[in-house]
Amino acid sequence: MNSAPKLMFYHDGRHPLIYMYEPPMQKEEYESGVDELLGTPVDALMFCLGDGRTVLHDTEVGELWGHNVRKWSHVIFRRAHQNAKHLIGKGQDPLRIVSERARQKGLPFYPTLLVQQGRGDRETDVRCSDFRFDNAHLEIGANGDLAPDTPGLTCLDFKHESVRDERFALIEETLKNYDVDGFELQLNYQPHYFHPDEVDRGRVLMTGWVRRVHRAVKKSGRNRELVIRIPASLQGCFDVGLDVREWLKLGIVDALIGQKFSGPELHDPGVDFRPLVKAAEGTGCRIYAALQSHLDSDRLCEASIEMIRAAACNYWAQGVDGFYLAHWFNHWPYQAEFYEILRELPDPEIMAPKDKIYTVPTETGRYPNPTLEPGLDMDLPAPLATGEPVSVPIPISDDLPRWNRARRVHEILLRVRIMNTTELDRLSFKLNGKPLPEGLLRRINEMYRMSAPRYRTGSGYWFVFRLDRDHWPRKGKNSLQIILDKRDKAVLPQIYVRDVELEIRYLMGRNYHRIPEHDLGPRIPSGI
């Protein structure tokens, strides 16, 4: 590897690959996991080792996905087993196929281990290992003193040496048997590692384990790197037993990936990576922002290019060293817009005078209550009560005065969706403390919808402000304040803020016309 990657691409090895192809899978089909990214700015492939508890490659120290299953409760999981077993039986180890293809094509390659995951029952959890089924006494909830809804209850408790050894053996085997540029520990999949009463002691054990992995990585190849994915909150990491500051002090990690919404994989341009960047200063450790594209709104499944630009520019402005493109497999099979997004990502100057849509994470169709990493929170949805302001932060990276002097700013739209509101309610809005005049506002009645592009939301109104220059947002932090001044007394449902979107539209050049929407390909449905 000649230089540090700027764009790491996470490939889970399953959704756009081994799940998709009918058994028996061919070697050339498996190589597509590499080939589909060639010719793009992606300069590191992070490739997941199956489920973590079981793997989809040839192993002597681990267990093959599905080796212990007689009757399958999930046909796609069976397909993964069929394809992996077939390739291994032909002497074409799946992990070797992709690692060698990546080396042949000059794409740095990092295997990724999902270090932690809970356990189900033998009849339905067909991806689980016998080690996990046979060793329930090694789990965090083994003593029976925790509530059934305790996070991580059936996850492995890393206080046990046998747990740490089992995880390490799989890492060591991979480093020994495959031509790789490093190894990624995915510590953010289910970030719970110790009994809640034993976290303080656990931090020391986890630091020792990370040091052991780091030494194994360096011993296997001087230029190999240890990359670790963690919650974006340093305090959140500390609270679950991951002493990231100590790792940085000891120099036992080469790159850290901060991530929010690892479980629901939701897009969020407002993630704050600055504490991680500051903590890594002077240590030689690089900081990557996990950039996710899954929106799951009622209008779009994946974030549009305008939304991706917004998040990417916000992240670059915080001083990160690059991006980790996490869970982008919903774009598969990859089309022109996917490659267009990749082309722009490495350079914020290219994206600066281009359309952006800043969104705020909220409830979604698949995730009405999205799971959050330790130490992180959400601003939406937000209930409204009469006379009590609700504030929603909207960080942006656009230098609007600069682009306005160049006559490149076309228009700026602020959209707010209020649920369970009626025409008799009275609301007022402020941006950075300045009231937004009624003359800038257009209301869109969606109290009832016959249908929607993806799923229907409850009754509500869109409040759309076409912002004039006196009410533009500023570069950096912005605060939108929403006040319910008067509530329709005949209505019982809770009124709340569900969606906030800030769209900035640019011209290609001074006084240039806007490109017609039909030439832009699929975008957010017009009208809002």
What characteristics describe this protein?
single chain; 528 residues; alpha/beta; TIM Barrel; Jelly Rolls; eight-stranded parallel beta barrel; 26% helix; globular
Plain-language structure description:
- There is one protein chain.
- It is built from 14 helices and 18 strands.
- The chain has an eight-stranded parallel barrel, surrounded by five helices. Strands 9, 10, 12, 15, 16 and 18 form a six-stranded antiparallel beta sheet that branches.
- Helix 2 (27-35) crosses helix 4 and helix 6 (161-177) runs parallel beside helix 7 (199-220).
- The protein is α/β, with parallel strands linked by helices and 528 residues long.
- Helix 7 links the parallel strand 4 and strand 5 (225-231).
- It is globular, with a radius of gyration of 24 Å.
- It has two domains: 7-114 and 161-359, TIM Barrel; 382-511, Jelly Rolls.
Distance between the termini: 46 Å
Supply the CATH superfamily name of the largest domain. Glycosidases
Which sheet architecture does the biggest sheet show? 8 strands, parallel, barrel
CATH top-level class of the largest domain:
Alpha Beta
Overall mean pLDDT: 95
Percent strand: 15-25%
Number of domains: 2
Query: Helix segment count?
Result: 14
Tell me the overall shape: globular
Largest beta sheet: strand ordering: 1-2-3-4-5-6-7-8
| Range of helix content | 25-40%
Class by alpha and beta content:
alpha/beta
Rg over C-alpha atoms, rounded to the nearest angstrom: 24 Å
